[in-house]
Amino acid sequence: MKIPSCQTEVSPEEWALRCDLAAAYRLVAHFGWSDLVFTHISVRIPGPEHHFLINPYGLLFDEITASSLVRIDQAGNKIGSNPFPVNPAGFTIHSAIHSARDDAQCVLHTHTRAGVAVAAQRGGVLPISQQSTFVLASLAYHDYEGVAFRPDEIPRLQADLGSARFLCLRNHGLLTVGSTVAEAFLGMYIFESACQIQISAQAGGELNSVHADIITGTAKAMQVQTGGLGAAFVWPALLRKVQKLDAGYNT
Fold first, then answer.
1. Per-residue pLDDT tens for 115-132?
2. How distant is the alpha carbon of residue 228 from its chain centre?
3. Which of 69, 81, 67 is nearest to 7 (CA)?
4. How far apart, in whole angstroms, are the C-alpha atoms of residue 14 and residue 235?
5. How much is the CA Rg of the chain, to the nearest whole Å?
6. Can you say whether the dihedral through the CA atoms of 140, 144, 146, 152 is positive or negative?
7. How confident is the model over 161-199, as pLDDT tens digits?
């Protein structure tokens, strides 16, 4: 599918966000986290308009390019002449989080098998792996209220998330927030890994839990591990991976 470039029609800041977001969609597809076309990653565009970028509804994640991403307002309405449709109902969760959290520049939501399986468990994420300790250090839960398109759910969702970086949507899936696309993606990689490990471990023998004191020090451990760069440390390597998969993502 050939999509005309919009690079000359947007600011350099928006174009950089478009390239990062398109890369994140390609990576979600590569790692098998997509649910056909039914999940979203959104990113806030700098400026007073409170506009966002989101996927063109109907395209598979491995088809998304920087130029195909759709600019929308806080209500999920399309802005500009992009020919692709959007799914306003799918933006309900994202808009709720973006509006409540200034630091939530990017919101990434998935419906993976392992993620939903853990979200369906009463105990949620268990402290049984190194990956889980990073999640548990900043994890919140939100009870399932049906398909998330009703406005009355928004304040409860915002209250449940609070200041957490990871949100387990009970019986639904996983969600991460980040100050950058890279941060939200790395968070989801760790969250998804923790869930996959948990489901695998539960098929074996008795589980061994990590001591609670260890969980409190994981934020510092992550900074040490990445030389203080956090997600920015691994993102260039991930962009090289996307480039090898399909060099057209950033067009």
1. 999 999 999 999 999 999
2. 22
3. 67
4. 18
5. 18
6. negative
7. 999 999 999 999 999 999 999 999 999 999 999 999 999
Residue 53: both structure tokens together: 């970028």
Length of the chain: 251
Please give the model's pTM, rounded to 2 decimal places. Answer: 0.94
CA angle 122, 174, 33 (to 5 degrees): 125
What are the residue boundaries of the structural domains of the chain, listed by start? Answer: 7-250
Structure token pair of residue 142? 């939100």
Task: Answer for the pair 18, 55: CB distance below 8 angstroms, yes or no.
Answer: no
The sign one gets for the Cα dihedral 73, 75, 77, 78 is positive
| Euclidean distance between CA atoms 131 and 4, whole angstroms | 40
Tell which CATH architecture fits domain 7-250.
3-Layer(aba) Sandwich (3.40)
Three-state DSSP state, 112: coil
Which residue shows structure tokens 């994420």? 125
Contact of 119 with 174, CB cutoff 8 Å = yes
